Amino acid sequence: MRIPDRELEEFSERFSKRYILKKKVNALLCFFIAFCGTTAVLYSRFVFNNAIFDRLRYMTFWGTIFTSIVSVIFGIVCIMEAKKETEVTYRWVYYLRLSSATAEAVIFAVVMIGLLPMFRDNPDLSSYPGFMMHLVLPLTTVASFLLNDSPVGKPKVADPLKGTIFIATYAVVMTILFGTGILESEKAPYSFFDFDNTSLHFSLFSLVGIFVIGYILSWILICLNMKLSWIWFHDIKRTKKRG
Q: Relative to the CA of 79, which of 72, 85, 161, 242 has its CA 20 to 30 Å away?
């Protein structure tokens, strides 16, 4: 049965308004993420007087910088999408966002695991940089990705690997730096990089485990994104019936 033109117009108008609202909200969220990440880095440098090069040993620090840059870029993209009322992103942008969300999800998972008694790590959750980098950024970045980004199709086995590029690159670089002695073992940001005082089995288990966790989280993020990205439009999927 043909839907009256008036109902189609009303549906299109409701959908358009909701789409613009979605993009504006996410743009604000992206800029909020960038603000939190930037201020956390500046706080660490100028309030705690930490040397930037020294802090770059930590995946959390690199992840914060990476996520902040990606968030600024995507916030601008969201504004463009709101003005044009259409998706202007590409697959590589989607996977860039996925990599950022996966990195933040892994950071959150590592922080939670690091709180367990069998690990020697003591994640900082009380200071401003620690709270922002370990909790606020991971949760807001994941939420932004899940609820905003337009899916690019049902994931193939290799697709989640694209979400692990950041953490895999970090792990390889740090393993080389600490494994070859370029960086001294006592400067290891995490216990599994302390090759002089940690068994090889533990280090391998931890590194492989983090990569596996990253792959699984990347897959979960893709699947959840496919289900949740349309939540903004759940109540306007069908035109209202006239009485």
A: 161
What gap in Å lies between CA 20 and CA 22, rounded to an integer?
5
Of residues 165 and 92, more confidence is placed in 165
Q: How far is CA 161 from CA 156, 204, 212, 217, in A?
A: 10, 19, 10, 10
Cα–Cα dist 104/27, whole Å:
18
CB neighbours of residue 221 within 10 Å: 22
Are the beta carbons of 109 and 220 closer than 8 angstroms?
A: no
pLDDT digits 0-9 by tens, 10-63: 888 888 999 999 999 999 999 999 999 999 999 999 999 998 888 999 999 999
**Which are the contacts of 107, defined by CB distance < 8 A and separation ≥ 6?**
59, 60, 63, 133, 134, 137, 138
Q: Evaluate whether 125 touches 111 at the Cβ level (below 8 Å).
A: yes
Please say whether the beta carbons of 140 and 25 come within 8 A: no
Residue 146 is inside which H or E element, if any?
helix 137-148
| End-to-end alpha carbon distance in the chain | 16
The total number of residues written for the chain in this structure: 243
Residue with tokens 């086995």: 157
Strand ranges (E), 14-69 = none
Residue 122, token pair as written in the block: 């003591």
Alpha carbon distance 172, 126 (integer Å): 30
Residues 6+ apart with CB under 8 A from 152: 91, 94
